[in-house]
Amino acid sequence: MTTEAAGAYEQRRALAAAALAAHKLDSVLITHLPNIRYLTGFTGSNAALLLTETSADLFTDPRYTIQAAQQVSCRVRIARGPLLERLVIRVAKLRIRRLGFESTHLRYDQHALLAERLPAALKFRPCARFIENFRMVKSEAEIDLIRKSVITNSAALERALASFEPGMRETAFAAEIDYRSRQLDAEAPAFETIVASGARAALPHARPAPVAMAQPGVVLVDMGALQAGYCSDMTRMFHLGKVPPRVASAYQATLDAQLAAIAAVRAGVTAGDVDRAARKVLKSAGLAAHFVHSTGHGLGLEIHEAPRVGAGDRTVLQAGMALTVEPGVYFEGEFGIRIEDTVVVTTAGCEILTPTSKDLRVLP
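Below the sequence we write its predicted structure tokens.
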């Protein structure tokens, strides 16, 4: 752990601690691992963080004794049993009376244990998106990490395309993408890589199938890299064989919608405004009914973060938010089109991080 990294985590914890009073809390229990990583730098698979206005205690198990000492600047408490059992003792010692918990992440059995073991006088309060609200706006260091992940992701696609062969199975091409990403130092895919061809591309979240990619037909590739903890996300379209006019028309309409949405991104507008810009274009093209998901989402330590760039979302965009912009149209039994970039909100508009061409490329 570097001094600079420790300082960043300490600053984040200080900001979160300062917000406790506004939520009428003495302390908050953080159990969602990405939130723990955001606040401490800890990357293990088992942890809980107890944060008060004046202290921060990370609870983990003996497997992570060395790792936690290397990564974490706050107090580390090694539990030789259930973490929450040890945490209850700490809560009692600190005489906490109002404890918040991550209501969208704490498991039912964990909640039941705490409800049983915590003092009856303690108020155990749900606190949704407490840390996620801080995470929406990225620091320059975080944006640099997302940018590196985006570049790795795009380079992996180009390397995988160099190995593309006619008759290749969707699963094989997805595996090639993941392999190339690992070669470029990604920790893992940011999500399960999507390769869907022909009529299967009409499934927005299709899983690669052990079938040869349909020829002639579209090929939809949705992929992301997880690198140094941060995610990227990109969707590009290809075509095997000559592009039919219907596909070309749908592709152009989707591209126009994506460019309109990107043009709408800037600090001060709402996420819903960006979604509306994409839908307006597709409505004009007579394709509104074929756009079945939101226009995008935030990303960072997780592939899906706030804000949701969807219809009616009133979240006001701020400079430093990292978003995807990914409208799509889907025709059951025929094909689907989606085009996606990762962007960062600025005061004047946005910076498009994704360098990969958005041309509809024809594969051999």
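The chain has two domains: 3-134, 140-363.
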